[in-house]
Amino acid sequence: MDAQAFWNVIGNYNKQTWIIQIILFTFMLLAIMLSYMQKVKWAVKFSLGIVNLFIGIAFFAWYGTEPIQKFFALPLYLLCGGLFFYESWRNKEDMIKRPNLIQITLLLLYLLYPAVSMLLGNSFPQMVTYIMPCPVISLSIAVYAGYKRKNKVLLTLLTIWGLTGIKSVIFNAYEDIILLIAGIYGVCILFKMYRTKSESY
């Protein structure tokens, strides 16, 4: 997959789904606030389930053009979406902790994603927006890390995609260095989970 094909998929997706993206982004922000305020503890996991499934179906299944998008990214996002739904049901009483410094940094970097994309010379529709694969995984890692009980399979899948941020150099998508940072953080969390035998499964 070359860089132009990569950006063409982004352009087509953004042109056709920008209204849905605004709705999903608003819904996700509301869910994040409800969870951090302990009003609806499972809300953010439920919202990330919806968003990951949407990206899998819309971005990769519908607008994707390359085999790697259909046979690697699509199933990964469908699995992540399904597991977030499962987590919102199985551990609905699990409270999310206040974000630590790393998580706050990742949350801020998520919010800066479109601005960084524009600073790098991109413009709509061929630019990175909030409801796109890499920003959503960055957010997913930052948020899910705050829960006490973590599903190792889900966190591993999120981390695998996070580490694909190395492609930022290949496709001239330097904003995805944010994704790579999130992926490295995911590796650190997994290492700590296996080392300390924390509440994970």
Model description:
It is a single chain. With 201 residues, this protein is mainly α. The protein has eight helices and no strands. It has helices at 3-36, 43-62, 67-90, 101-119, 133-144, 152-163, 167-170, 177-196. Helix 4 (101-119) packs antiparallel against helix 5. The model has no long low-confidence stretch (mean pLDDT 93).
Brief overview:
Helix content is 72%, strand content 0%. The protein contains 8 helices and no strands.
Distinctive features:
201 residues; 8 helices; mainly alpha; globular
Bin the helical content. over 70%
Kindly state the number of beta strands: 0
* Strand residue content: under 5%
Give the helix tally.
8
Radius of gyration: 16 Å
Contiguous uncertain segments of 5+ residues: none
Sheet with the most strands, sense and barrel status: none
Q: What is the structural class?
A: mainly alpha
Average pLDDT, rounded to a whole number, is 93
What oligomeric state do these chains adopt? single chain
Molecular shape = globular
Order of helices and strands: HHHHHHHH
